[in-house]
Design brief:
This protein is an alpha/beta fold and 284 residues long. Helices cover 43% and strands 19% of the residues. The strands form three sheets. Strands 6-2-1-7-8 form a five-stranded parallel beta sheet. The relative contact order is 0.13.
Length: 284
């Protein structure tokens, strides 16, 4: 594949930003060659210009989806940076369940957890696995009282996520042995499938985070890790504002290890617990 010219880079960069919010800076120009170049070669395009022209002709709407899919990183694994999951099981679920019980009064409490930018579903299923182990200690909550929703812009990763089948490499090395043995079934081709009782706790839905998440409803816990770091500051602020609106007042936002709301949004305060932290909505 040829190198991308400056004009092609500027045009494709602007288009990618408009569709998905992802802002590729000049020093990352090579990402167009490495990520998109491979796709164009595979599909027989003569170069970036032909792709751009077809992309903007309006005749092949699916191409925009393919473009974003090719340009996004889907790197993930089960129990990735395990600290937020310890925080979830030991601290957030017990505390937020109490608030939910109080809030529900005579109704049955229900917990809703969002995994935003869920990629192949590793984070979403990890959340469900933690919830299952916590449920073993609960009298009044069952899996019917918990919703775990994974959302992503990419339809292709969501199709994979729904299947719940992974290579050993996609699972990663952070899964505790007891959980690995209990919650994955080994397939004849050497891949591993998340067991049915965990799969039924999880749903996946296509959603572009550039748009508000209002239609998805309110959440008690919102994971958004290693996603908005790729967006420009203005968009990060907008997304955090959407999150704030959809989080219950006693809820929690969990971001990636190198992400923060600090300097971006006054509507969250940092709560540090041991070697990890989460963000709590404050009333505005
Ligand atoms: C690096 S993965 C992070 C996966 C997981 N959260 C984790 O930390 O392991 C980033 C994911 O964000 C998704 N993504 C990128 N832009 C998005 C957007 N505008 N709306 C929704 N998802 C988006 C990508 O498709 C990709 O699957």
């Amino acid at each position: 594949m040829k190198e991308i010219s400056t004009i092609e880079f500027e045009l494709l960069k602007k288009l990618l930003f408009r569709i998905s919010g992802i802002d590729i800076q000049e020093n990352k120009r090579y990402l167009f060659t490495t990520r998109l170049g491979e796709y164009l070669e595979e599909k027989g395009y003569s170069g970036f210009s032909e792709f751009y022209n077809r992309l903007t002709s309006g005749k092949e709407p699916e191409l925009q989806r393919e473009f974003v899919q090719a340009m996004t990183t889907h790197e993930s694994s089960f129990f990735r940076d395990s600290r937020p999951f310890t925080l979830l099981t030991k601290h957030l679920l017990p505390e937020i369940a109490d608030s939910s019980r109080e809030n529900a009064r005579l109704l049955r409490p229900h917990l809703r957890i969002l995994s935003a930018g869920c990629s192949l579903g590793q984070e979403t299923y990890t959340i469900a696995m933690c919830v299952r182990s916590w449920l073993d200690t609960q009298q009044d909550f069952t899996e019917k009282d918990i919703t775990v929703l994974g959302i992503d812009i990419s339809r292709r990763v969501l199709e994979r996520a729904r299947r719940g089948t992974y290579t050993r490499n996609e699972i990663g090395m952070a899964v505790p042995v007891a959980i690995f043995d209990k919650l994955f079934n080994k397939e004849s081709d050497g891949t591993f499938t998340v067991v049915e009782p965990v799969r039924t706790m999880v749903r996946f839905q296509e959603h572009n985070l550039v748009e508000p998440i209002t239609a998805l409803g309110k959440f008690d816990i919102l994971f958004c890790r290693n996603v908005i770091i790729y967006f420009p500051v203005d968009l990060q602020k907008k997304i955090l504002d959407h999150f704030h609106r959809q989080l219950n007042r006693y809820g929690a936002l969990i971001m990636g290890a190198s992400e923060t709301t600090y300097n971006l949004c006054d509507s969250f305060e940092v709560v540090s617990l041991g070697n990890t932290a989460y963000f709590k909505p404050v009333s505005t």
